[in-house]
Amino acid sequence: MKILLAASEVAPIIKIGGLGDVVGSLPLALEKIGVDVDVIVPFYPIAKTEGLKIYKGIDLEIPFGGKTEVVTVYKTKLTDSDVDVILLQNANYFRLGGKSAFADDISETEMFVFFDRAVVEFIKSKYNTYDLIHCNDWHTGLITHLLTDEIGKTRPATLLTVHNLSYQGVGDEDLLQDVGIVPGAHRLIDWDIQDSDVNLMLHGVTSTDFVSTVSPTYAKEILFKDIGGTLAEVMQSRVGRIEGILNGINYQQFPRSYDLENWKEAKAEMKSKIADEFALDPNKPIFGFISRLDPNQKGLDVLYESIEHIVESDAQLLLLGTGAKDWESKLEKLAQDPKYKENVSINIKFDVKMAERIYQGSDYLLVPSRFEPCGLIQMISMHYGTPPVVHATGGLKDTVIDGQNGFTYKLHSSKDLNDAITRSLEIFGTKEYDKIVQNAMLADFSWDESAKKYKELYEKVIDIRKRDMNFVNARGEEENG
Ligand code: ADP
């Protein structure tokens, strides 16, 4: 079984968001259990290549927008592994990269439609090498259709992993012509472009042989409007072919200087350091909050309403985040209010070291997200022995067990969050709290378990593809998704 994992980023070579971490870690865990995976990504100028051996391979000719673009194929390996990383270079399309490559504006959709075509040309050049193409998010949304158009029935199987359904990659309908998808070739595309734009996530999800999401609960939640939004019905049409596999975390990235024997003293020391650093009281409980300030996803409204309850409960809030400008100033303003000044510390920045100190020194970590496809933050905080208080949604629901390794609440409301905060404070400083800390530290979210599940899923999808192909052959029909 040989797999090609196609994505917009792969850490540590190209890291823009959490997707890069997944794409950089999963193949290493798969390699350990004997799965042969190559990774393919755009070769942005921001790629960190120091210390890597990079080999220049063939030039591919990519027909795009009525002209021919040359893409040069480079190859390197993920550190300390035999995993090949294929880097596709083209000065006209893969010049963007960097901070905004996660957003879905028009220029990025153009870049990734071109990427999809280049990936397919690469696969063609390696005829019959890959059994399955593992696509990731909207960036790879047209790969299945292009494979069908270019290779036909004998194309490799495809799996598309949805990391976050709220980013869909909506682009100009002309991109389809550019990439060589003609009217009449795919019914759903013809229907979609009646409004003059094309939704790349929609076509990825509907054309792929199988869909996966990054947690089992999120796989169920996206079937409903509340979280699946305008694609909920589309996701429902794929029931039976959707499965969730929890992301793992790479524990090497989160060194911890204490263990089950000495966590109490070590964390007390860390707490007193952060209390100093952020002008808080080391004798009162500290709730940490570390997040992108994204009001759609991260539950900022619920958190904001709960700050009064935290302070009135004689506890404190320590927030680290950046994002929506209006929320940044709203939070900073609140921290100036004499009512909150002493007990609330708002830090508007992106600072990985500061995050590490907050994870280690806080008594609890708040994760009030409205939805959370998987979430790393609760896993990191458990590893550091800081029980998370989370809204039971998506990956938060799948990892945090109420009263065992953290605290959960069901409804996305500040009333429910307040109740959970109260419950968590009731046992502060007791043996019950200590037990929760220890259970949290013992939880294992390493990639090994998830890699086994991906291996099984790859095998299943390859079988499904064979079955579908036989079915199509028997009916003598061409595919027309
Ligand atoms: P998402 O991918 O939706 O942002 P996750 O919980 O999956 O949420 O991952 C967030 C990651 O980003 C965590 O590693 C967290 O520590 C880190 N992070 C978020 N905001 C900040 C910040 N302001 N400074 C440092 N690290 C941050």
Written description of the protein model:
The structure is a single chain. The chain is an alpha/beta fold. The protein is 42% helix and 20% strand. The chain contains 19 helices and 17 strands. The strands form 3 sheets. It has a 9-stranded mixed β-sheet, sandwiched between helices. It has a 6-stranded parallel β-sheet with strand order 14-13-12-15-16-17, sandwiched between helices. The chain has a two-stranded antiparallel sheet with strand order 8-9. Helix 2 runs parallel beside helix 3 and helix 10 crosses helix 14. It is elongated and about 70 Å long. It starts with a strand and ends in a 6-residue tail after the last helix. The chain binds adenosine-5'-diphosphate. The site of adenosine-5'-diphosphate has 16 residues, from strand 12, strand 13, helix 14 and helix 15.
Summarize the structure.
Helix content is 42%, strand content 20%. It is α/β, with parallel strands linked by helices.
